[in-house]
Amino acid sequence: MTNPKIWMLSTAVLILVFGSLLAADFGGITGRYLERGETDETARVDLFAMSMCSFCVEIEPVLGDVLDHLDDNVRFRLFFVAEEDGEGGFTSLHGQNELEEDARQLCIFEHYPGIIFNYQECMLLDGKWKDPGDNWKGCAENLGMEPSVIEDCWTGEEAPVLLSENVKKAKYMKIRESPVILINQRRYTGERTAEALKSWICDEFGNPPEECSLDLGEGGLTGMIIGTPAKGTCPLEN
Question: Buried-most residue among 28, 138, 149, 178 (CB within 10 A)?
């Protein structure tokens, strides 16, 4: 007869091993943050987005203003809310145009990470995001990017790999709507203004940087241009 103590020990070992395998599966997704490490002076901010969701498009430049203001005190990552279809492709709420723009933005984040929010703001102005077409090229050129670098990425083999890895994060976190902002892995539920976002992030610091003491006003510079973003989300299932 099997010793009950040995059976319980074996079961515990199997659970630990299985848990380690699960963690390893998502190490490539979450490890980017853990490698850098968090201190009392830094905070993690994750944005889960859909590139053609109006609620998301409006909040992105406001978030960008806040992160520019807080500078090195924030570790940011952009994730998209879409799904792999099991046949080597993807599905998204707003269709193929959105998937292409998701891929472009991932390529921009990969090759020109410091410009992603400037690009999103450019696409917001005059409603260019509603029909990206060739509008993205003008924004890229105006911001000093080389459009061919982005086009080679999103039309080639690089973008599907980036997108496949990227969308796993939302699935793992069970996030199925956009925009969702996580600050140190807690969902942001405050007002969609620069000052509210800044205050929420600054509350996470054990030792707030001096930038936290500056009042960004109700909407910040971007808010004065585009107004206060509307509340609401775009669900993955329409």
Answer: 178
Looking at domain 41-235, which of 1.20.950.20, 3.40.30.10, 1.10.620.20, 3.40.50.720 is its CATH number? 3.40.30.10
pTM: 0.80
Decide: residue 64, CB within 10 A, 0-12 exposed, 13-18 middle, 19+ buried: buried
Domain range annotation of the chain: 41-235
Give per-residue pLDDT as tens, 4-39. 433 333 334 333 333 433 333 333 333 233 233 444
Unique residue bearing structure tokens 């850098």: 36
pLDDT tens readout for residues 84-128? 887 778 889 988 999 999 999 999 999 998 899 999 999 988 888
- Is 205 in contact with 41 (CB distance < 8 Å)? yes
**Positive/negative CA dihedral, 136, 126, 94, 223:** positive
Tokens coding 3: 């010793």
